[in-house]
Amino acid sequence: MSPTPDTPRDLVGIGIGPFNLSLAALAHPLAELDTVFYDQRPAFDWHPGLLIDGATIQVPFLADLVTLVDPASPWTFLNHLKSRDRLFPFYFAERFHIQRAEYDAYCRWVAENLPALHFGHQVDAVRFNPERDVFEVDFTQLDTDGEAEALGRTYTRNIALGIGTEPYIPDPLRPLVEAPGVPVIHAADYLTHRADLLTAEHITVVGSGQSGAEVFLDLLRARPHGRERLHWIGRTEAFAPMEYSKLGLEHFTPDYTRYFHALTESVRDRLITTQWQLHKGIDADTLAAIHDELYRRTLHGGWPDAVLTPGVRVRTAGRIATTKLELHLEHIEQNTRSRLTTDAVVLATGYRERPLDRLLAGLDPYLRRDSRDRPRVDEHYRLALDPSVTGTGCNIYVQNAERHTHGVGTPDLGLAAWRSATILNSLTGKETYPLPARTAFTTFGLETPRPQIPPARRPSTLTPLLDGI
Questions:
Q1: In this structure, which topology does domain 11-164+354-428 adopt according to CATH?
Q2: Separation CA 256–CA 432 (nearest Å)
Q3: Per-residue model confidence as pLDDT tens digits over 256-279
Q4: Taking the model in full, what pTM does it have?
């Protein structure tokens, strides 16, 4: 028998990206949980503007939504292949890292088959009702055109926020997006505007991470030799490869996450600024493909009309004339400045976590924050709330909003299943999904030393003889 509208659910998920999709998939077989997940989009999609042909995800296919905690789940990537009669082709393809488009198709398959997911539902507000000891979630049901169709309210004891990230544009570059008639796009929308971009005489890509590299490579492949007219700039001192050594990857394990969470706030903040190459560097294969493409164009003499300049920041930017853009550049190491005129710009400047305050404004009196006014998050991914809320058994879990407390693995797909299982174990109050006690060969901190007391020396009839030798 289905619950009445006033019956509190066990869990409401807000946002259906890969992380809450993982949570929904692992919650699906748990009959004791009543769950529902809302997303304002009409259907699942995952970075559609960056599903460039040949671009791969940066984690192995085993880092799907469920496998690393429940390989027998019906929602594994391998079961997706089986449902499409593609297991043997995948087997012979010998691909450890799958294409982005294939990962997106896998997530769509899961999303289309989980009954707890409700797309076209925009969550408007979240409040705590102290009289009923539950959260109230107000939402608007949207029609196919995205217009409001009906209003609704759901009551729940627990919430999982998976509202994702949003494209980030640094302040010096904001004047560019206010220049109508000139192609200036964020990399998140690259494929949507690719055809228009290719008509531009000169194109500049800003950003030295993976997205910038993939966009530059795709543009390079699409432009004829001698008429590339491309410029790629970035703030980092080099177009640096991502740290991908075996032991380096152990920073994306539960062991490191636990270690990081136990550090002091000031140490965590300092570490985050030093670990950019663990998650913001460029895949070595992408760098090799760019070099191969450039090298191929030198075989008959001459150099491609493409400029790659790291160590550069944009001081200011804006439109000049009618169809031109001008970037005022500063080389960080040389302390020199110059101007770059271009016809189109792709801003591969990354993403930022969506502020939780927009959605949780009604809970602000209950939220507990750190010294920088960020939400506190415990080891089980629960927001720190006033005891008047948590004492009732109500909790708010976050997914991909806790890098300041849980470290570089926060946005990594490889930790999705483990975090989802951790949340479900916390929510059910039992080991619903058994998790390993150890996941890395590296020991990230010193254990509390114990006094080393030598054992008592046992008397021996040989002692006098030995002492005399």
A1: FAD/NAD(P)-binding domain (3.50.50)
A2: 23
A3: 999 999 999 999 999 999 998 888
A4: 0.92
